[in-house]
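#help-structures

NK: newbie question. if I give both the sequence and a SMILES, will the prediction place the ligand too? trying with S-adenosylmethionine
OV: yes, paste both and it writes out the complex. here, I ran yours:
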Amino acid sequence: MTQEWTHIPVLAEQTAQLLLTRTDGVYVDGTLGLGGHTAYFLARLGPQARIFGFDKDEEALAMARERVNDPRLTAVHASYTQTAHVLQEAGVDGADGALFDLGLSSYQLDNPARGFSLLRDGPLDMRFDLSSPLTAAQIVNEWGLADLERILTDFGEERNAHAIAMAIMAARRQGRIETTFDLKKVVESVVRGRGKIHPATQTFQALRIAVNDELGCVRTVLEVLQNIIKPGGRAGIITFHSLEDRLVKNRFKDLAAGGGWRLMTKHVVAPAYDEVRRNPRARSAKLRVIERV
Ligand SMILES: C[S@@+](CC[C@H](N)C(=O)[O-])C[C@H]1O[C@@H](n2cnc3c(N)ncnc32)[C@H](O)[C@@H]1O
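OV: that's the protein plus ligand as structure tokens.
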């Protein structure tokens, strides 16, 4: 039996209300995933609307195309950092709204073959884009101590970065660290968990961010929003951890202070208790929206 993957879109109604200002507008879904937000948006848009959906993950794109199955969607295998270029090539002079729902989908997390989850044994991969060269296994087995420690600190905010990096260096002298469970065991050998949080959680987050240059992509897209969004259009970003949210919050504040942009979310939008109960993965989501005036 083939597995039916799911991903419940987070803050879907709030996002639709804040971003869909024109029924027949042009929209960007920078992180199409399984098409959850896009399907939700298309159900609320008119026949002339268009959505350009981006994803680095071709498996997700194929599923999104099949699930959404709507001629108003153009699904593109590219990083969302290429949005302005793709719109220009399509002869579109900017978007009325753009959503970036950061991080990874439930499909990627739950699929052991993708190597994202410490609860499932699989190859240490963690690439969103399976055609990109760098895997988590390469980082863990080939990078030096200082670089390992740096990513654990900068991308995992891991207090035990030095001890974990040392343990990785020691373990790989015995043989390659190939799987998620191999790495989990290495971390467990030097760090104890806090409450319900597994001791390797921050290590896995750090590797995922490094493999996919996640913060670099967020910084890039924040710098070029004026090339993506039309005057009157809006950009919304959903983040799942403080490293991303800090980048978005500060950049939106600077844009608004510089004139030409207006913050639509004075206070960050977070899911209600009911949504978190239905979809625990929504618990750390934060939505911020800005409008180009
Ligand atoms: C949280 S999921 C999006 C889920 C989607 N909103 C839905 O409702 O089905 C994030 C998706 O963004 C993709 N992604 C992450 N960084 C990306 C980037 N720089 N460019 C394009 N896609 C990216 C991931 O591959 C993943 O499929």
